[in-house]
Design a protein that fits this description.
heterodimer, A: mainly alpha, Arc Repressor Mutant, subunit A, B: alpha+beta, Jelly Rolls, Serine Threonine Protein Phosphatase 5, Tetratricopeptide repeat, 2 domains, 9 helices
Chain lengths: 199, 355
């Protein structure tokens, strides 16, 4: 039987609460190495969530940054009742929600979209780029709450229960928001075959 | 409903940039907190003593006022309860005191005496008998009015953070938002960054920026002898505010941003190091040589700071971006010598290895 390393896999231990508590304590004590470790542990997921909510805009970097600053500054309030990841995700969703509520997202720059679909054949790239642009244009017409709920569920792959927890509402409300968002998107897609294919 | 596949960008350089920004900001916040903690605060027992003395002065009013007795941290304390009688806060020389009134957070500076009055309509008035108060107040749109009176100067809050000093001379400094100042001679609307002092009688000086000291003598006969000429006080240099100003200016006026960063960097303030880092990043975009000189200055002056590693790496990045590969290799090697397990060790090894 081949070893895990031989096939490019490794076992990554899920952090126990004790580890998390230690990491949080070290961060609170101002340990830069711990802050770096926490950032690196959580970055990929926070980045993905905010990106999937907002789409390819230049503001994603700023919001990811804002999320982590808010998380580090509020770390003293983390009581360990939820997993640290969930707690940070809630901050990310709140940051994204505030952003969507107050500002219209800037149009997607090509560089980011190209990075997104790197490796595809040129035609498929153009198609994917077009689809994404239409998707996020349609999403920007929705209310902030519907947009966030839909993006978390249909793009970020969260469960309804998770969506409800992250946006701070009941599962019924979360489900309703997703359903309404989808209904609006399907209306737009009726006139738009590229968007329809994506949905 | 099928899941829509949207994969986020995953480049290492982007992650490193965001990580650097986050850690820089945290380091700056820590510096600011340290600077705050350095403000002399009276020991708890003394503070209690003066608090009770102050309460004693207003004992008949059964003042419902609690003031934090915590050592060096600024902690919001129990707000003044519903009360229309004046409450007096007196801080000792060398101490300071933070308290909340409604939605406002007030810091009374050393040797300050301030009365807090609440009107029936919920309006709040602080009367500064001496010293200075720093007020962080929410915009008043739908909220009850908030006034600060210092002698014959009245400050009405539009929504802001500001400082009102009565002694040694009346002065108002606005950190953000707007305030309306009423004083003999007129009304002034101040915005963020503005300072105000009353104009010299009859000078006709526009009072938006620092001007000469006014006489606080009441206008009663007999006429006093003319006061000796008083030199205008120099504006107080606040490194943190200047640093924030430089950050804002980066988007609009790079030259002024660089000058402001340099101004702060040349001080011995806690913000000197972040300012020099900001300057290095800014200069590097305009002039590689100057950016490198800033990095070297930083590493010489702040070798043990939390950001020294980032600055060392910034030096490598500047050289790499400028296409000076050999020098970048030397810089990466230098970085690895100091931080073999550092955040950028992986990429530094790739750069440092011979082509």
């Amino acid at each position: 039987m081949s070893r895990l390393e031989d096939v490019g896999l490794s076992i990554v231990e899920r952090p126990t609460p004790e580890d998390e508590a230690e990491l949080v304590a070290a961060c609170l004590a101002g340990d830069v190495a711990a802050q770096r470790a926490l950032f690196r542990r959580e970055f990929a997921r926070v980045n993905a969530t905010i990106y999937r909510i907002l789409g390819p805009t230049r503001e994603v970097d700023d919001l990811v940054q804002e999320t982590f600053i808010a998380a580090f500054r509020g770390l003293a309030r983390f009581r360990g009742e939820a997993r640290l990841a969930t707690w940070i995700d809630r901050i990310a969703v709140r940051v994204a929600l505030d952003h969507v509520r107050t500002r219209r997202p800037a149009p997607a720059p090509f560089g980011l979209i190209e990075e997104l679909i790197d490796g595809s054949v040129p035609d498929a790239q153009a198609h994917a780029r077009d689809g994404l642009r239409r998707l996020y244009a349609a999403l920007s017409q929705l209310s902030a709450e519907q947009r966030i709920a839909f993006a978390l569920y249909a793009i970020d792959g969260r469960s309804i229960a998770e969506v409800a927890k992250l946006v701070g509402t009941t599962t019924v409300t979360a489900k309703l928001r997703i359903w309404r968002a989808r209904r609006e998107l399907m209306k737009s897609a009726a006139q738009d075959p590229v968007l329809k294919e994506l949905l | 409903m099928k899941r829509i596949e949207v994969d986020p960008p995953t480049s290492d350089s982007r992650r490193e940039r965001i990580e650097r920004n986050v850690l820089n900001q945290l380091a700056q916040l820590r510096s600011a907190e340290r600077a705050d903690a350095a403000v002399p605060v009276a020991p708890p027992s003394n503070r209690r003593a003066w608090m009770f003395a102050g309460l004693g002065a207003a004992a008949a009013a059964a003042v419902i006022l609690v003031i934090s007795t915590k050592g060096s941290e600024h902690v919001p304390v129990t707000p003044i309860a519903e009360d229309t009688t004046p409450s007096r806060i007196v801080t000792p020389v060398g101490g300071e005191s933070q308290f909340t009134v409604g939605d406002a957070v007030i810091v009374a500076a050393s040797d300050t005496s301030v009365d807090v009055k609440r009107a029936d309509d919920g309006g709040i008035t602080l009367v500064v008998a001496r010293g200075a108060v720093d007020c962080d107040v929410a915009p008043r749109n739908q909220r009850p009015p908030f006034h600060v009176i210092a002698g014959d100067v009245s400050v009405e809050v539009v929504g802001t953070r500001f400082t009102v000093a009565r002694t040694p001379s009346p002065r108002v400094d606005v950190v953000r938002g707007k305030v309306r100042v009423r004083a003999p001679g007129g009304t002034w609307l101040l915005g963020a960054g503005d300072s105000w002092q009353p104009p010299v009688t009859g000078s006709g000086v526009e009072p938006v920026t620092t001007v000469a000291v006014a006489s606080e003598e009441p206008a009663v006969a007999p006429a006093p002898p003319p006061p000796p000429p008083v030199e205008a006080p120099r504006p107080v240099f606040n490194a943190h505010q200047q640093y924030q100003l430089a950050q804002k200016l980066e988007a609009t006026d790079v030259v002024r941003a660089a000058k402001t960063y340099r101004l702060v960097a040349n001080t011995r303030d806690a913000w000197a190091a972040p300012a020099l880092y900001g300057l290095a990043e800014l200069d590097a975009k305009i002039d590689v040589t100057r950016g490198l000189a800033d990095c070297n200055e930083y590493l010489r002056r702040f070798a043990k700071s939390a950001q020294a590693e980032d600055v060392s790496w910034l030096r490598t990045e500047i050289l790499r971006s400028a296409g000076r590969r050999d020098e970048a290799r030397v810089a990466a090697t230098d970085y690895l010598r100091q931080w073999p397990q550092g955040s950028y060790a992986g990429i530094a090894r790739r750069i440092a290895s011979p082509p």
